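Just curious. Protein, please.
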Amino acid sequence: MILSFLLAVATNVPATPTWTPTIGLIISLSSFVALLLTLKIEKPLVGPKMPLLPLSIPAFVAAMCFGHIIGIGIILGLTNIGRL
């Protein structure tokens, strides 16, 4: 029963776009915006510091993760409406 359910789910997966420079630009811009948003957090300097940026390593990693999640949402949304 479970195996047939997983097979049914696996066959209905929509096609995702392959990597293009446009997709890379979307991910980069969303990560940059997320990095700018980290400058507004209350305590950005808790933990080990980044050498060139005024924030900590955990804040930087969190910003990059959040930027990638937002970028993936943008890419999948644009793909769904046929713009990408």
About this structure: The mean pLDDT is 85. Helices lie at 2-11, 21-37, 57-80. Residues 18-80 form one domain. Residues 57-80 form the longest helix (24 residues).
